[in-house]
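Q: What would this chain look like folded?
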Amino acid sequence: MPALVRPVQKEDEASWRNLWQQYNEFYERTVPEEVTKTTFARFLDDKVRIYGAVAVDSTDGKIVGFVTWYPHPSTSSVEEVVYLHDLFVDPNARNAGTGRQLIEHVNEHARTIPAESVYWHTQYFNHRAQLLYVKAADRTDFVQYRKTL
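A: My prediction, written as structure tokens:
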């Protein structure tokens, strides 16, 4: 059954935090409480252009996934581009098209900006997600480098 994808609401915090914790455990990262609290608050702040949406199971109303994204200027286009930052679907709710719905929600928002494109990356070992991503977008040849400061 398809999920309803909608913007994050204040009442979603506990459910979102549960999925957020699973997401961070999957990527073997520890996110300080201050970052988690600030991230959620940003979704609710109209002055901050970081967005969050949740997928709500249409049968029981349970939140089963989330996506986060933000638009930003680009040096390769006049229009902004949108970075899809986080995407997670409860493992018990996968294979129902929810991940694709969440991606399409971001695409629809990007079209309203209007943005030139939506992009994201994943870790090389996340093969399950890549099975979806190759259907939802074009894989690029870029490799990411990062310097922690």
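The two ends are 44 Å apart (CA to CA).
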